[in-house]
Amino acid sequence: MTDHLLGEEARVLRPDGWWRSAVVYQIYPRSFQDSDGDGIGDIPGITSRLDYLAELGVDVIWLSPVYRSPQCDNGYDISDYRDVDPLFGTLADLETLIAAAHERGIRLVMDLVVNHTSDEHPWFIESRDPASPKRDWYFWRPARPGAEPGAAGSEPNDRPAAFAPSAWTYDPVSGEYYPGIFSPGQPDLNWENPEVRQAVYAMMRWWVDRGVDGFRMDVINLISKPIGFTTDALDPSGVEPTYEGGSGPRLDEFLAEMNREVGLDDLNLLTVGEMPGSTVETAIRATDPGRHELNMVFTFEHVMLDRVPGGQRWDLVDLPLPVLKNNLAHWQLGLADVGWNSLYFDNHDQARAVSRFGDDSPEHRVASAKTLATVLHLHKGTPYVYQGEELGMTNAPFTTIEQYRDISALNVHAAATALGVPAERVMHFLTTRSRDHARTPMQWDATDTAGFTTTTPWIDVNPNYPTINAAAASEDADSVFAHFQKLIALRHDHAVVREGRFELLLPEHDRLWAFTRTLDDERLLVLANCSSRPAELPLEDLPDHVDAELLLGTHLNGRPDSLAPWESRILRLDQS
Ligand code: TEU
């Protein structure tokens, strides 16, 4: 076991602000590498692949949940915060992984899922008894006035859950309802109760003692519930704020308390809060170093731009490039002086970036995966690479609902079908946006199951694995993987990539993504053609760069006035 290091020792282990120059790699354990032949990825599998991550050059692993869990939401429903689920291995395996990562100079950040527990967590089981001292650890509410408890339509209000028709589940043991704003298997914890908060902080300290370097905090803005949620006077129409953007008034107070009680800043731990619905304003508050809450947050704005506001989840709209790049620029400017950005396109909840924002056809996949990475990694903030993104992995070509595994996909399918939405429309949503696209097995090599397992994997491997895989990438100096290596090295080597001021150029151009980064007398120009056609560069509207040094380019075509399809360049401008 790694010793818990305090004070000066902790600073040597984790220097002040180290996360500002770090690149984080997210591992979704279930889909990374199976080691015991059960078709599900596990911790020893991850340990066996650490050299691959060291070769990529990342600084940190964010490990999606490996805690004990009934797996109703693949581990985002935790029944024991201090143990590892046997599916993934043992606590000893995790300690081995942490030590082996540290040996390679890679830190490890745990996923912290404390907005809710599993309905199989002992706290919740105890809480079901109305006489229990833990009754108030969750939100128990009676049926709506005059309604028969447990009967259809008697829920306290009409609020839907993210992954189920209703946020409310009836508990026959106590004759009352509890809310699970994600699913019935994920009852919301009552953070108003100080005992709940102290129990969470004690658990976090326990993990810090085991050598973890920080926490990615699941839907952390939802721990403080909106006004109306915690009172008995619930609006039966359910029109109160939904879980997206529905943070309550005590969020900053809870985050500052957590930081203090766990010693998050004192120990220089990395903290990133997932905050659906957060705005630049809420992010500034949460990441202002003077307030000691979090280092950074995950905004959802840029991954929601293709949704119809107030529409159904399956209502999608096209996303013009200016909308996307201006949104990222809004966050860059908003957090330029106070706070810090996280940078991501991909994670375990999103469709694959190259399929969604790029062009995953055989002709353009490699160039568009590289160009999207160039653009993202040259913004200011901490970049997150999601497993397989560094290979340009694509969406899965699933054709039937039976191939999907995610509770969210299955719920959307059931809900839309019940409403009579045409099957093609529902399947279109799933084939373009399902979370399962990110969850197909990591493609290691061209052998059966892409080298992921020796048996049938829990979810189908993407059939393009014979060409898109890590082994092939490592033999190709022009691979997407090699490009990610270069981007990561650029960030480590150049202060201007880490700290330079961001300025968006050509904001309304519908195919070019162009910006500068400036630090003292150093200036970078990033030019990217985000389309599958050649693009002329409007030289008159760009800084002079004809003689600039090319730091990284997908394929410099010798012409300063145009970019090939999905070509991008990082140029160092002559400031003399
Ligand atoms: O995600 C929060 C969240 O808002 C997403 O689930 C979102 O609703 C979904 O992706 C819509 O496309 C976090 C985790 O990242 C996710 O995996 C969990 O399912 C969820 O919280 C509940 O813990």
The ligands bound in this entry are:
1-O-alpha-D-glucopyranosyl-D-fructose
| Fraction of helical residues | 25-40%
| Beta strands, count | 19
Helix count from the secondary structure assignment: 16
Radius of gyration from the alpha-carbon trace, in angstroms: 24 Å
| Strand arrangement across the biggest beta sheet | 10-9-8-5-2-1-12-11
Specify the structural class: alpha/beta
Average pLDDT rating:
93
Shape: globular
Binned strand content: 5-15%
N→C terminal distance? 54 Å
The biggest sheet amounts to:
8 strands, parallel
Poorly predicted residue ranges: 1-5, 231-244
Structural features:
576 residues, alpha/beta, 8-stranded parallel beta sheet, 5-stranded antiparallel beta sheet, 16 helices, binds 1-O-alpha-D-glucopyranosyl-D-fructose
Task: Describe, in plain words, how this protein is organized in 3D.
The chain has 576 residues and is an alpha/beta fold. It contains 16 helices and 19 strands. The chain has helices at residues 7-13, 43-48, 50-56, 91-103, 122-127, 194-209, 251-262, 280-287, 321-334, 353-356, 365-377, 407-418, 423-433, 470-474, 480-493, 495-499, and strands at 24-27, 60-63, 67-68, 80-84, 107-112, 168-171, 176-179, 214-217, 270-274, 296-298, 342-343, 382-386, 501-505, 512-519, 522-529, 535-536, 549-553, 562-563, 568-572. An 8-stranded parallel β-sheet has the order 10-9-8-5-2-1-12-11. The protein has a 5-stranded antiparallel β-sheet with strand order 13-14-15-19-17. Strands 3-4 form a two-stranded antiparallel ribbon. The longest helix has 16 residues, at 194-209. It is globular. The termini are far apart. The model is unreliable at 1-5 and 231-244 (pLDDT under 50).
